[in-house]
Design goal:
By secondary structure, the protein is mainly beta. It is 10% helix and 40% strand. The chain contains one helix and ten strands; from the N terminus they run ββββββαββββ. A hairpin with a 4-residue loop joins strand 1 and strand 2 (20-21).
């Protein structure tokens, strides 16, 4: 939950190749703050922790952002998700030889303002992804 001095972040993942949520994807949250973070001029990232997407593809327990956060990075470890998906498909139909994920991880960096909530969905498939600011 955001306050007047902090922003808050939530996310979910939809696997667009099957039209379903992507469960079991590890997500790490990092933040940076201060003038040094503005305009890409440095600033150290502080890893705040992470979560794993639930059956609905959502991370409901991402850590709170510290006061003064100006930029946030969400790191999605998608390769294990696609490896499991590929193994399951091969077990069901050995002739199906998916090539796994072209992008083993997805890192999304965005600017935040105090008092705002940022919902950042990831639309994912083995060969591409898209993100947007949701509501």
């Amino acid at each position: 939950m955001s306050t007047s001095t902090t922003a808050s972040v939530s996310t979910h993942i939809l696997d667009t190749s099957i039209g379903r949520p992507a469960a079991g994807v590890a997500v790490q949250l990092a933040a940076r703050s201060g003038q040094s973070a503005l305009y890409g001029q440095g600033g150290d990232w502080q890893t705040l922790g992470g979560s794993v997407t639930d059956a609905d593809g959502r991370c409901k327990d991402l850590p709170a952002l510290p006061a003064g956060t100006t930029h946030v990075r969400l790191d999605f470890a998608v390769e294990p998700y696609f490896e499991k998906k590929q193994a399951d498909a091969q077990q069901d139909a050995p002739a199906n030889r998916d090539s796994g994920a072209f992008f083993p991880e997805v890192a999304i960096t965005f600017a935040v303002k105090p008092g705002e909530h940022y919902h950042v969905p990831l639309l994912l498939n083995p060969f591409g992804y898209s993100v947007y600011r949701g509501s």
